[in-house]
């Protein structure tokens, strides 16, 4: 085969590979990462694919090379050596500066709009301490008084036990002591997403400058980085840069470093070099104290008998218990405070369900859609119309309350949405439950249908 014929064949192969990849990815991902690629050169058994810049090239190699090789062999029948290259310089807008709109597929970079991300409502003064969280609390207070005492401080424990609260409390206390202290507080998923944007927009230097010039890094849910090679490499060098210059690092996770899937040994070693502080499940007195504080702060009208019952339940996730407090308070408000202990037990019957009886995500979506007269496809779509957005948010809330899924997993199930979208939906639904009686009644009926296994009002669409 002549070189010209080989080039033509492999160029056609490249087009076919892209067509098949388009069927595997959502449109947004395809447009961002694969559409900008082109063929630089080809021979009988080698295809060189050109990316816009070196950072783009690294991302493509890490995330798509295996798929390119597999599909090429399936179509061509022989092994094709696939290599990637990049332009000798980034796109420019005429004055020599990078044109981020071209590199980002038309969207401006998010890097310059990022804030420190501290949540001011989380402080040490409103964190209730018990034997299960005392070590993490004391260590966090010490870090806020004397940066570098424990570096890194690694706080781990189950969901809803107060890790995020302590992380923000550290930052808020440091700002209170010195408002010039530069602090970045963010979820690990946001760190990874921002790194992705930096690669696409050829702004990795800005990313480095931003995160390696801060005084304190507070990173939540580091377990998200497991298996993500590029993000791990970036975090390793960011960690080293901060650590070696005496900057404070605090990390939270639902796992110990060795339990995080596919976490590089060098990161395990760095994380284990500081202080481990675990947060265990709260005992009944601590659960009761936390619930009483929530009832007081949120002005929920529930008597002590119901709080005693809630604190006796096996559920330890405080966010989940707070959701049930909100549900009971809304029901009491709608029914002129006619709650009885038997009624409370009925409303919270899911706590006594066996594993086989627990509510699944498919059932939540179908029943929720039936009540709102939309289809499952509707709430998974990009449609932002209120008639679709409200049931989507309701489904997110119910999945968060009735399943062990994380916000990230729920977002993926409902149209590959970001975890922050699920967090926002959860907050909106909780607010509606307090303020909107019609909405509260619909949600109450949906929950009763879920618990009773009723499918009478399920939508036929899916």
Structure description:
- The protein has 462 residues and is α/β, with parallel strands linked by helices.
- It has four domains: 84 residues, 2-Layer Sandwich (GMP Synthetase, Chain A, domain 3), CATH 3.30.300.180; 146 residues, Rossmann fold, CATH 3.40.50.300; 69 residues, Helicase, Ruva Protein, domain 3, CATH 1.10.8.60; 98 residues, DnaA protein, C-terminal DNA-binding domain (Chromosomal Replication Initiator Protein Dnaa, Chain: A, Orthogonal Bundle).
- The protein contains 20 helices and eight strands.
- The chain has a five-stranded parallel sheet, sandwiched between helices. The protein has a three-stranded mixed sheet with strand order 1-2-3.
- The longest helix has 23 residues.
- It is globular.
- The C terminus is likely disordered.
Shape by Cα distribution:
globular
Main beta-sheet strand count, sense and barrel state? 5 strands, parallel
Beta-strand percent range = 5-15%
What count of domains describes the coordinates?
Answer: 4
CATH homologous superfamily caption of the largest domain: P-loop containing nucleotide triphosphate hydrolases
CATH topology value of the largest domain? Rossmann fold
Strand order of the largest sheet: 5-6-7-4-8
